């Protein structure tokens, strides 16, 4: 009898211990009591009612869930192509998109995700597919193929959270990317040829822009050089004119102070300046001294002047 009581006591203790639960660092736990949510536990050791009364659902909040939808390149040829969408100019493109999401780390988000976790992937994929079809249908095939890898993720990232908000999935959108984007296999060679031609055109345009930019920089540099030279020339001219004006002012002051005592000072200044002029003319071959034309009888005008120096 004592053994039975001990066994019952141990069973009771063990049953009570089932109320303890350890929640990991990157987890949250939703506690349901008879199917009704009564608590959300943070990381750590917690105690609730024993098993059968309380149910503890641990939800990893750091886990990033990954879903893909749309076209699958390896799908069977006889199957109806999934992810084959019609563009605005009535062309077909094959698109596959990947969406990464995690559980929202809030009490309401955890409860919503626990309620919808079995359908969350499907609802997110259907909502994203409808948005993807809208975007493709509003763009031409060239825009879809050339810019879709950049514009589609931006479009879905902005609108998908709003689209799935009424579903109360309790998820947080992390990233959207295009996993596959190409024309149908039947016309892919033609599209590849067009893409190569467009790429070649873009290369030529970029090269022309670079050459134009380089020539513009060279012209600007030459203009700056000419401007600096002009500024330097102007500075030299101004300095020379200032020096000459200063010299003239000093000569004028000197003349005004000397003419009182020497009335012939102006004539002396005139002959001084004329001497400078005559020296310059002689150096350029414009005049010559008459000494070589003087003879015994005076100036011989029959002699020719020496040739002008050039």
Order of helices and strands: HEEEEEEEEHHHEHHEE
User: What Rg, in angstroms, do the CA atoms define?
Assistant: 50 Å
Q: Under CATH, the topology of the largest domain is which?
A: Tetrahydropterin Synthase, Chain A
Supply the CATH superfamily name of the largest domain. Answer: Band 7 domain
Tally the helices: what do you get?
A: 6
Biggest sheet details: 4 strands, antiparallel
Low-confidence stretches: none
Ends: how far apart? 146 Å
Q: What is the top-level CATH class of the largest domain?
A: Alpha Beta
How confident overall, as mean pLDDT?
Answer: 82
| Domain count | 4
CATH architecture of the largest domain: 2-Layer Sandwich
Give the strand content. 15-25%
How many β strands by DSSP?
Answer: 11
**Overall 3D shape:** elongated
Overall SS class: alpha+beta
Helix content: 40-55%
Set down the secondary structure blueprint.
Blueprint (H helix, E strand, L loop, with lengths): L1 H16 L2 E4 L3 E7 L2 E6 L2 E4 L6 E7 L4 E6 L13 E3 L5 E12 L3 H10 L3 H18 L3 H24 L6 E12 L5 H71 L6 H19 L10 E2 L2 E2 L11
Antiparallel strand pairs: 1-4, 2-3, 2-5, 6-8, 7-8, 8-9, 10-11
